[in-house]
Amino acid sequence: MKVQIIDMDHKGNGISKLDNKVIFIPKGITGDTCDISIYKNYKNYDIGKINEITKNSDLRKEVLCPYFSVCGGCNIINMDYQEQLKFKENKVKNVFKKYLNIEINPKVIGSIKQYGYRNKITYHNDTSLGLIGEFGGVIDINKCLLVSNKVNELYNEIKELDLSNVKLITIRECDNGLILIVTGKLKIDNLKGLCIEIVINNESVYKKEDGYISIGELKYKVSPNAFFQINTSNICQLYDEVVRYGEFSKNDNVIDLYCGVGSISLYIAKYVKSVLGIEIIPEAINDAKDNAKINNIKNAEFVCGDVSKLISNSIDGDILIVDPPRIGLDRHTTEVINEKKIKKLIYVSCDVMTLVRDIKLLTNYKLGKISVIDMFPGTHHCESITVLERE
């Protein structure tokens, strides 16, 4: 059936209508005319699959990746990059308007790199080792354009091995080499020369040295399973916005929730009196403590524990920074933040839907500035930094 794409949803899917029923069409762009088939049928909407684009949108560009039509990764990489940024800006604006009834005009910061920017990638193993497909299954690829040549080379070496007992392969790229993380069983003798560390089922079985990533003037130790921002080249732009919005002084005591390896805590430490970072992953907290020593930072302290359980006792400070996972803040955490008289909250978010949900619950704070930072070019995802000030 032939349809026209009239809009795009917040996940980057094209939207069309047929007989008053909405059809979501992955990889469709506003202005496309397409021949589609219905992939999944639901009561209130359908999911369509593009068979042929009969008329290209003016926003569409040539895609360099040969797997784009079937891979589930880069769903808006078929748009001109400036149009990608406009999509992300409008996505955030529309979500704020729809769920908070607030008109915003966010600052938008693009990515320094559009390709080769990811420092971590996970491959799934089914009949072959590859990436999750747009419509299910695993797509066998030769290379991914979002990672470096070194990562693609290691991936192709791994594909030559017996993978019958392998479930997942993750490769993390640090400044000084690659860390390989395996779920399953794998013979690694031929891979040692390509890696600085190999971890199998959460056990380090080969290690040449720790992995390090430098951000600005700081050097961070990054363990295999610790959280670290994916887009290495753009982290400075993200953290510089935190500094700008923080307007920190040497009198400020800052609390950094979900601090990971201490990347934000240590980045802002020179501007404040003290920083307390809280993180649930022990490996990450150990890295954070090591990173404070590596960078000779003495006014940062790190505590391992569940934020939702520690927050009541640990949240006496002037400024609060939160950088939660995609699920956002839990209800107890928002309740405690509401009770405490912290003058400013800086919310770093990777999901605008959970961000607006949490803002709605933080009733004692008013919305200040907001920036949209593109940490995930080619995809519908975006990072944002929002300032909330105590009323």
What topology emerges from the helices and strands here?
Blueprint: E1 2-4, E2 7-8, E3 14-18, E4 21-25, E5 33-41, E6 45-55, H1 81-100, E7 107-109, E8 120-125, E9 129-132, E10 138-140, H2 149-159, E11 166-174, E12 177-184, E13 197-200, E14 203-207, E15 212-215, E16 218-221, H3 235-246, E17 253-257, H4 263-268, E18 274-279, H5 282-294, E19 300-304, H6 307-314, E20 319-322, H7 331-339, E21 344-349, H8 352-361, E22 365-373, E23 383-390
Helix pairs in contact: 1-8, 6-7
Structure, described:
With 391 residues, the chain is of the alpha/beta class. It folds into 3 domains: 2-60, Nucleic acid-binding proteins (OB fold (Dihydrolipoamide Acetyltransferase, E2P)), CATH 2.40.50; 85-110 and 230-390, 3-Layer(aba) Sandwich (Rossmann fold), CATH 3.40.50.150; 120-174 and 177-210, no CATH class. It is 23% helix and 33% strand. The protein has 8 helices and 23 strands. The chain has helices at residues 81-100, 149-159, 235-246, 263-268, 282-294, 307-314, 331-339, 352-361; strands spanning 2-4, 7-8, 14-18, 21-25, 33-41, 45-55, 107-109, 120-125, 129-132, 138-140, 166-174, 177-184, 197-200, 203-207, 212-215, 218-221, 253-257, 274-279, 300-304, 319-322, 344-349, 365-373, 383-390. It has an 8-stranded mixed β-sheet with strand order 7-22-23-21-20-17-18-19, sandwiched between helices. Strands 10-9-8-11-12-13-14 form a 7-stranded mixed β-sheet, covered by helices on one side. Strands 1-5-6-4-3-2 form a 6-stranded mixed β-sheet, with no helix packed on it. A hairpin with a 2-residue loop joins strand 15 and strand 16. The radius of gyration is 22 Å and the shape is globular.
